[in-house]
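Limitations
The structure tokens in this dataset are predictions for the assembled complex, not deposited experimental models. Users should treat interface geometry with appropriate caution, especially where small molecules or nucleic acid strands are included. An illustrative entry is reproduced here so readers can see what is and is not provided.
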Amino acid sequence: MILAVLFSNSDGNILIERFHGVPAEERLHWRSFLAKLGADNLKGAKNEELLVASHKSVSIVYTMIGDVCLYIVGKDEYDELALAEVIFAVTSAVKDVCGKPPTERLFLDKYGRICLCLDEIVWKGLLENTEKDRVRRLIRLKPPVEP
Amino acid sequence: MASGKDSSGSTLMDLITSDPSPAPAAGASSQQSSSGGPLGRPAAAPAPADRKSKKGALTTLSQIQNDTITAAKAFNPVKALPQRNRKKKPVSYAQLARSIHELAATCDQKSSQRQLVNSVFPKLAVYNSVDPSVAPSLLMLHQQCEDRNVLRYVYYYLARILSDNGSQGLSAAGGIPTPNWDALADIDAVGGVTRADVVPRIVDQLSAESSSDDIEFHARRLAALKALTSSSTSNSGMLEKLFEIVFGTLEKVADTKQKRKKGIFTKQGGDKESIIRSNLQYASLSALRRLPLDPGNPAFLHRAVQGVEFSDPVAVRHSLSIISEIAMRDPYSVAMALGKNAQPGGALQDILHLHDVLARVYLAKLCHSISRARVLDERPDIKSQYSSLLYQLLLDPSDRVCFEAILCVLGKVDNTESTEDRAGGWIRLTREILKLPEAPSVASKGILSKSEKTSKARRPQPLIKLVMRRLESSFRSFSRPVLHAAARVVQEMGKSRAAAYSLGVFDEAANLQSYSDNVESLDSDINENSQPEATRKANPLSNGYGGLDTIAGLLASLMEVVRTTVACECVYVRAMVIKALIWMQNPHESFEELKSIIACELSDPAWPSSLLNDVLLTLHARFKATPDMAVTLLEIARIFATKVPGKIDADVLQLLWKTCLVGAGPDGKHTALEAVTIVLDLPPPQPGSMSGFASVDMVSASDPKSAMALQRLVQAAVWFLGENANYAASEYAWESATPPGTALMMLDADKMVAAASSRNPTLASALTRLQRCAFSGSWEIRIASVQALTTIAIRSGEPYRLQIYEFLHALALGGVQSNFSELQLSNGENQGASGTGLGSLISPMLKVLDEMYRAQDDLARDIRQHDNSKQEWSDEELKKLYETHERLLDFVSLFCFVPRAKYLPLGPTSAKLIEIYRNRHNISASGGLTDPAVATGISDLMYESKDVHKEATTMQSGIDPDLAMAWAAGLEDDVWDNNAPAVDKVKDFLAGAGTDAPDVDDEEYMNSRPSVGYDDMWAKTILETYEAEEDDGRSSGGSSPESTGSVETSISSHFGGMNYPSLFSSKPSGYGASQQTIREEPPSYSTSVLQRRESFENPVAGHGGRSFGSHDDEDRSSGNPQSGKALYDFTAGGDDELSLTAGEDVEIEYEVDGWYYVKKRRPGRDGKIAGLVPVLYVNS
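Predicted assembly:
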């Protein structure tokens, strides 16, 4: 289960968040936990370098893409390595939409599109599409494979 | 929780709509606080407006509506969209909704479409829910608009409307909080639109679309199906409809046989029809995956199994994930349904090369479930097909897949496996010989072990070698997720190994070659295996690593690599490595290296306390797996206690002590207790007193916070010692046959000590430590030590009781301090007139012991008189004796728990007489069961029904009876009281639970806490405990010693939450006793106890000063605390201050420099219950 996908800017303001299976009262904790994790560790991290954390049986993989931090929280089959796959799918889709590692401004300009991408990549707590091309087609309402 | 996405005054909407340069409007901030707290400040969690119930007053709701609209307006004051349109368009929610309505009406125009796609829809995404009133326009767009981009958004929003959970408006999406649309619609006079109105329409329209067969629109069909799946599956009608659509689609597209085209995404092969079919297959399986599992349904399974052959990799992944989940419950039908797919050349073989990592992960799970299934024992052919698939996955290029396969081999799937499963996993790992697969394509995938495979293809290899090599190469990776995962795999390996060890199927020194030969001989298709043993040993395995041909050798080389990983800069990876090392540690191995690694790691301040506690919990789990390791683990736990006292949870540590002490068994008990009490030997954290200790023993408590925590820890250790020394020493007054009043009584103190230590060194050393603590510790520790000593005195037989009596007596007089003067040098406290300042505390304890001795003397005299005059005991005399017995029992029970039925305060000689009296008057000896202490059942379990439990233990084979008894007594899960948070934590951990949100480990946050290292929820239980104590204090303020017995029940029940576990019970523990002592000495002690608590709450609150002069404080504040009322609101300006609300009742403890130290009746919002407030703020 992918419990959360969360984008924030470098100040820790959350830009996009998608929770699945996280009770409402725990979301606040997750937000602040992730924001603190990013504040502590993402400064000076290389672009798209994967960082890892864990809390009890939950894994967290996070990274910095351009000026935007991306955190993914998962459990069970979505362990660190599976989350690395997820994060790779998300970052490549974001780069695809923005054309490059996004600045915060660019990210916000493409906000709607990124939401659609996310909708195609992580859906109801499960990883769906991973291929950049496929995602690109699906957000334009084209079939995943063109006849 | 619909919280704002904003922080520091700028909202997401501001960010999105603002031009890059200008700062966001400040006007928004006031509104934000009503609609959502700023992020990053966990304390601010306002109830969002949309959670108000429908029944709320009309005015409130319309207020909300206005608020929301103005709020939304305020989010974006008169700012134009980035793309300027004809009109200026402020982006409030209402405006967005309106533009959707307008643009939907003109959706045939290009400009409208562009506007929708570029500005309206993206901004709507910022809000966390979509107003159902937008739905009609969306549906109109859905029907009339042809622009794909617009339509994609339309599906997105329709899905969001469908997925909204009821009327709460709390979708998973997050975003700027929105009101409860349905509630708004209800009060809207002009007929608002609720979800109930629109959802059926949306569902109808989407279902019609998703069932249509129009090829031109099949992309829309996919999107419609996906959107439909978002709707809540709790609605059975909806569910039925979805199943109908999905099965209907699969009916048409799944059955046609088609060969998978490899690399379908790189080259778009295949005809149009088959591609469309494949797309539909994908969409329907993806929908099926989101529907609830229907394990008993053959149609469901059939459709899922068909998915394995689909050409779309995502469809295959979903199909495998469904199948693997069903296979965990019903492996037989899955294996039957899969049938030929598993055979060489079947669809499952193809998945090995499928370009989808998760699909292969699910395949591993599936293979594991089937190959381990008992129901398939009759079909070894099927099982071997699946195991062979699983072993092929070990060679997978992806670490994720390979690790999953290793975990499957090790027998780990979820956390519910039995020890036997895990042990079987270890055996499998160490003994299995892997025949490399015939399929050459795997080898050509360019993976790490490629070279060795191609070079000696077909050569059977021990499985463990392959795994070790793979893990070792993963540990050389630079990627943190890979390192973390590899360490986790090693940890799981350790778990399986521990399981094998505990079941005695552990054989590491064995030569791998011999295993392989054994298997080969069974297999008998490969080379000669008739070599004599000697030549085989001399012939190392093919890769030429000398000395690596034993499992132990392989493991050693792996662990070498694991240890180097400690150098990773990421603490989480390091934590995982340490856990792995703890798990791989075996009882018979030296753990010096592990110790030094941990000691070295703990010096790093970067470790968050949650992680450290996680490691501590790992020690627990390790202990549970191998009780033999108790002493080793205690040694490791000690490092935590000394190195990071401020960061670990003292309760969890204490529980570890306790479980280890119990687990150490009769022989190890002494060592275990030594390991625990070593904490007491730590030098006090004052500067200057730390010299002369080895590095591990050095206390790293340089800051006041950790000094406080260390003190708490020492106190806990003292407490633990008092409660458990008797257990560890197996010395109980009620089991000792030595009658008092014998020659021992004549001995002087020195001889008595000598006699005592020769009889029971464990108890003697515990006594020595406690005696030292009673002198040299801080005020709190001295109190705890004296209490602990009293407990031991009451529970032990002679000569210990007498020894303690003498000591306490001397302590009370204060005259002996010169004898211990060297111990007091580091103390630096003014001992005061009574020597230790403990006189008032000791006197009731002495009184009890006095009474006991006096009664024993009287009894001895009476017996002698009766014997001399050959006179029978009269009923009257017996009654008197019995009453004394009961009275003393009551007294004693005030101090610590004793089994009432067995305890004889008058000494063993009284047993017969009391028995006579009881028989005559039909008094049940177990009358003490009404005693809440006994009612907990622990004492009886432990000392009376020993035999019963011996029977029980025979069932738990392989565990020694003493240990099992102790488990039964104190550690059985159902005996573990729910109140003890440490127990919950450990249980959660052992069960592998834990997805709840983490606490942010914030310095300031921690400082304001009463005790360091507690989770939020614990803090709550602690506060409740405080409250209970406070109640006690109040209710018992004026009660006399005689009346305490009667209130005991209620008191003891109040102490259910006390966090100190003891082998007896956590309930009627000595803290209770100390509280009850208060009743005997109300003036002096009550305040000191309260202060003691408070000093934990406020580490900076001048604790030193107070403990310094605590005796004076007591005298000054004698009597009941004064009550007062807060006159004004007061906000605490520091940690030692207390916030007040005007009108609040407080108790004034004392005054200092224009401040009152007051106590509230219950903790305030900040969790504090006591602190300083200005005198003028309180009306006394």
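Some entries come with short summary sentences. For this one: The helical segments of chain A are 24-41, 80-98, 104-109, 111-121, 132-138.
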